[in-house]
């Protein structure tokens, strides 16, 4: 269903590639470009609606109003508020991936890739502040989506570390524990310096964190 | 209101020291040992009630039933479900601190302290699985408590790093960004290996993560 990652555009703050938008039910996948555009409009509107109001207070009519679509369009793609929320978690997860991946893949080595990955994640958070509220609320609304978002994201990082280790760019034992540790680091730095602190120098935060990740806390002789 | 951290008992999985239990309103602080015991019973029961049912479905009568106290006792200390939830976030945050701090303080240097801190956190999560759901739900129920929990916890880590740097045990520039990065690392490892995976060897996870933290991802020559 998804295009290969390398074909995703590296655009920042945009609506993401069409292919990341999918309805709750695969049978309802749009068959025309116009349909895909409507679906994407609904998901972008849902991000604002859920991000501003939270799952409980968000409404389907609020989503279609923001999207500028008829209520019927909603039901062409989704059966319920739960279903679009679930699709939205996957959509945001994939938008994030499509934003970060091409930048990371262009990095000269795995250490730089992790710095670029963190910096581009911090920029994504600044542009899409609703991502924390939406992903975090999935813990309560749809635990399977919540867990899948992190497992998918971390598996991608683990694979990246494994490839970097195979190329001799980082320590040979880098694996799953390292990937979860780095993911947590990034998510917390995103909350502190992307979400809460508008004025933080994102490149600087990424540089400091990456230097610790690369070289460790231990004092060098 | 709190005792100094170093006087907290290092007990694991217990109800925590009496002093971490405080009602929502300081005017309602219990004056007798019996009152403090009741308050603690209510907070421990609230942890189970909110942990199992979530904020929305949890009820005051569910809390008093689990605590084995009369409904009147609840209102001696709290005015509402919101108020005991807020007190519970602080209580859990302080229980965690009181569990981890003495172990960390006994470590021979700051690198070991971070390993011991992570390992004892992972053990705390295994014994108090409800902590994730409660702290995470605070993001939606009481954002100020949510943010305060992390800011307080990370400030304690930052201070620890600063002291370790002053003693020459770690790199001299260790500061706020490093502290947030380490906190995120610990929270994600706790979710993955404390909460989701009962069978993971906690000491091993802490050792692997600490080795990356100490020495970095970079390949050593």
UniProtKB/TrEMBL annotation, chains A, B:
DNA-binding region coordinates: 59-78
Region (Disordered): 1-35
Record keywords: DNA-binding
Molecular function per GO: DNA binding
Bias-annotated ranges (Low complexity): 1-10
Cited SUPFAM superfamilies: Homeodomain-like, Tetracyclin repressor-like, C-terminal domain
Annotated Pfam families: TetR_N
TM helices/strands, residue ranges: none
Annotated HTH tetR-type domain residues: 36-96
UniProt entry tagged with the keyword Metal-binding: no
Protein name as annotated: Transcriptional regulator, TetR family
Taxonomic source organism: Sphingopyxis terrae subsp. ummariensis
